[in-house]
Design brief:
heterodimer; A: 1% strand; B: 586 residues; alpha/beta; six-stranded antiparallel β-sheet; 22 strands; 21% helix
Chain lengths: 248, 586
């Protein structure tokens, strides 16, 4: 990985609006090419894994809520660990702290109107703002309805009912739209469960092992014609897999 | 005030498939050609190398290869009674930004349209009588026979893998018997087939259909194209559509043309420069050049003898509207052609769930599949059906990327323990039959400028008014019923029939097959460009891409976009340059 791509990624995660282009500075400078194929060493636009450590966006209360909620969306059961064990809360934290949370690729200019369902997302809240507002609203609703208990303190059945009410638009929240939040939250939870482990979720490739997805492989030519055969290929992430490391 | 730059012969607006083709053809003809691209340079080893290309979150869900709505988007409504609102993030379709355009992240499904598709209006009225109220389909002004050599050129540049079904009128076993006659075989044999498409082929045959391997821009073997550029064999990695190919195995401008074009001294590419409008002299019926802005916010005037719009489909009519070229379409009176006949695709699917058949869905490629064409175009008698047009049915095996692809039976909750169990149970043992239907143009489906919302440069956003009509729903339901019958013939444990119901929605991904708005035709009153894709208003302005389709047939558009581009390039080189002026007298 080149220095330039690291600094670009760091800038992106710091929320500085850059485009999706290859090298640092390329957005800043229009460039002209003629008479040659453009190529410079060290310009590969490799991904940047999350940095370990404390939460960057979530408050402790928010993290507690999300730990409880993702454990209902994809629970641990006889089949194996669920979203909480897969590190989905950490995944969500890094996503919300970065470019996605800020909605930096999204069109976020008014005027704002509710619109038809066919017109898609029309909230003035960025994803990070939406999570912040909705978690606060949902916990406030729970405290009121369940004599002082927050979402994370409810029984699994009570939690499921709250989530169902959000999903179906039955729970009216104070400062946010519950159904909009649920749609984004469920999508992001599935992303955290199934995306490459470099982003903080899918820890130990839990999600991939559950279904039999072999991960970031790039050559299946030997297997195309093995019709109907279970391949049992161990999953590989962008940073390899534990079996590649003799000390693992 | 824009500063004026030295003139060039040709300026290309945008640098995807059509601009790469034109750049190569026109630079080869000795012209000084400049391409202006709003995004950056992108190439295989730097931007989607095999060491990091297989990243579902980054490229698809975080949209890294695609257009950023924060900079430019459109507004959308289903009909004129609604207020159009901005598409705030991408969903239904995925235009690109950057060199190669959507040619980087397409599937590679590379079809020819049927001969009857090019004469849709005259053909259907002749066979079935009057068209449904409000349907505004037109003939193209160009025929399949005229385009055949240009389809051939694009297919050989790309190295399409497939099997001919009709060689100069002789039906060929193993190919699509409904296709228009072709002069020679595909440049490469069909891809090796994964399990699911072979199950579909068997069931399709048993139910009286003729299955064939779908034409694919994923290489079935190493291939060197007529420009001398070599592509490598596809590795079936399952990160194809919505991704860049790390393996030089999917045809794109980068893997077929740019290694030759970029080395030419009389070709120049300017990246991170965005064309704001076309300058023109209406009295002289000429475009004089373009105005573009660089990343410092400085505006430049680039004079040119020929201006060619090569941006993604709907951006071309948008640029014409912003430039005040042509008469904008009025849906009340039906007058004006610019923005008229926006169309799309109507798609549906049938999932078949098995207990014991392991599909290994992750072994895939963007155009790996088996199709049938009995229900496309006018390949079947529509009498009494209440619709015209059709589409293909296919069993593609494109991917097993789990965020996107985790099929569950009908009635499964969307989360929780039951969802998790269903995902785990069905991931390896499910296949899907897709239907890919035409969208006929309709009086109320069109593009114009939004009165309220603006882009990052302060320009009014394009406003899209679109919904499926009765014709599309009836047709799509008909296709879906046929798919369900074939699925049933496979004897699965259960099926899930997913019809396309209700209004068109901008939210879920469907296809990036946006068409119309700057349509081609035979009459300046009802079309924006003539049969050579030349503007009726400004003779040195040409418009490329699917925006010229008068309506959208039941196939993926790129094969025809490529063919039309080579057709227009020949008209410019062989006719226009000798005597600049209107190539067709209005």
């Amino acid at each position: 990985m080149s220095d330039s791509s690291v600094s670009r990624r760091d800038l992106l995660s710091a929320g500085i609006a850059l485009g999706s282009t290859a090298a640092l500075g390329s957005r800043a400078d229009a460039r002209s090419y003629s008479g040659e194929m453009p190529w410079m060493p060290g310009e590969a636009d490799a991904p940047t894994p999350i940095t370990p450590g404390p939460f960057q966006f979530l408050t402790p209360d928010e993290a507690t809520f999300l730990d409880a909620a993702v454990a209902r969306l994809i629970p641990a059961d006889d089949l194996g660990p669920g979203a909480k064990e897969a590190g989905v809360t950490t995944f969500l934290d890094r996503q919300l702290a970065g470019s996605f949370g800020k909605g930096s690729r999204w069109y976020m200019q008014g005027p704002w109107k509710k619109g038809e369902s066919t017109q898609g997302y029309q909230s003035r809240l960025s994803p990070a703002e939406l999570y912040r507002a909705a978690i606060k609203d949902i916990d406030a609703h729970c405290v009121e309805k369940f004599s002082g208990k927050k979402f994370s303190q409810l029984t699994a059945d009570q939690q499921d009912q709250i989530l169902k009410d959000l999903e179906q638009g039955h729970l009216k929240l104070k400062n946010s739209e519950g159904k909009t939040f649920f749609t984004v939250f469920l999508q992001n939870t599935i992303e955290g469960f199934f995306s490459d482990p470099i982003y903080g979720g899918n820890r130990d490739m839990i999600g991939w092992k559950l279904i039999g997805f072999p991960g970031a492989r790039y050559d299946y030519r030997p297997y195309v014609k093995q019709h109907g055969k279970k391949l049992n290929l161990p999953p590989v992430g962008l940073k390899g897999r534990p079996g590649w490391n003799p000390n693992a | 005030m824009a500063r004026k730059l030295p003139a060039v012969d040709v300026v290309l607006v945008g640098f995807g498939w059509t601009a790469a083709i034109l750049g190569q053809e026109l630079a080869d003809a000795g012209l000084k050609v400049l391409a202006i691209e709003r995004g950056g340079w992108r190439d295989t080893p730097t931007d989607f190398a095999v060491t990091f290309a297989q990243d579902e979150l980054r490229y698809y869900w975080r949209r890294e290869l695609f257009e950023e709505p924060a900079r430019e988007t459109l507004t959308f409504r289903n009909d004129q009674s609604q207020t159009a609102l901005p598409m705030r993030h991408l969903g239904s379709f995925l235009p690109a930004t950057g060199v190669g355009g959507a040619g980087i992240h397409w599937n590679g499904q590379t079809w020819r349209f049927l001969p009857s598709d090019f004469v849709a209006k005259s053909h259907n009225t002749k066979r079935y009588g009057s068209l449904p109220e409000g349907m505004t389909i037109q003939d193209w002004g160009v025929t399949y026979e005229e385009l055949e050599p240009y389809y051939d050129r694009f297919e050989y540049i790309c190295g399409i893998s497939g099997k001919a079904g009709n060689l100069s009128g002789k039906i060929q076993a193993g190919g699509n018997p409904f296709e228009g006659p072709r002069k020679r075989e595909y440049p490469n044999p069909p891809m090796e087939m994964a399990y699911a498409p072979t199950l579909f082929a068997k069931a399709a045959t048993e139910t009286g259909h003729v299955p064939f391997p779908c034409p694919s821009a994923n290489m079935s073997r190493a291939y060197t194209n007529p420009l001398g550029v070599t592509l490598g064999p596809c590795t079936y990695c399952g990160f194809c559509e919505k991704f860049g190919c790390g393996n030089y195995s999917k045809s794109s401008p980068q893997t077929t043309i740019l290694p030759v074009l970029m080395r030419k001294k009389n070709f120049e590419l300017r990246t991170h420069c965005e064309v704001l409008r076309v300058k023109h002299d209406a009295a002289a019926k000429r475009a004089t050049g373009v105005i573009y802005v660089d990343t410092q916010g400085d505006e430049w005037e680039q004079p040119a003898e020929i201006v060619i719009l090569c941006a993604f489909a709907q951006h071309n009519p948008w640029l014409m509207m912003l430039s005040g070229i042509g008469q904008r379409y009025n849906p009340q009176t039906g007058e004006g052609a610019l923005g008229k006949n926006y169309a799309y695709q109507i798609v549906s699917s049938v999932n078949a769930f098995f207990n014991d058949k392991i599909m290994n869905p992750f072994v895939g490629a963007g155009a790996l599949g088996i199709g049938i064409d009995e229900y496309n175009g006018d390949n079947f008698d529509h009498s009494g059906l209440g619709f015209i047009g059709g589409g293909y049915l296919a069993c593609w095996q494109t991917n097993g990327r789990p965020i996107e692809t985790h099929p569950v039976p009908k009635g499964t909750p969307k989360w929780g323990a039951k969802w998790k169990q269903a995902v785990a149970k069905n991931y390896l043992t499910t296949l899907s039959i897709a239907t890919h239907g035409a969208v006929m143009s309709h009086r109320g489906n069109y593009l114009d400028l939004d009165p309220t919302y603006h882009d990052v440069h302060g320009r009014p956003l394009l406003r899209l008014t679109f919904d499926y009509t009765d014709n599309e729903h009836k047709m799509s339901d008909y296709l879906t019923d046929r798919a369900a019958e074939i699925a049933k013939a496979m004897k699965p444990r259960e099926t899930h029939v997913k019809k396309r119901e209700g209004h068109y929605s901008i939210v879920p991904y469907q296809t990036t097959h946006n068409t119309g708005g700057a349509i081609m035709g035979t009459d300046p009153k009802s079309s924006v460009v003539n049969r050579y894709l030349q503007s009726w208003d400004l003779h040195n302005l040409f418009v490329m891409g699917a925006c010229v389709f008068p309506q959208n047939p039941g196939y993926n558009p790129t094969g025809t976009v490529g063919a039309l581009t080579y057709w227009a390039a020949d008209a410019i080189k062989n006719t226009y340059l000798k005597n600049p002026g209107a190539l067709v007298q209005a």
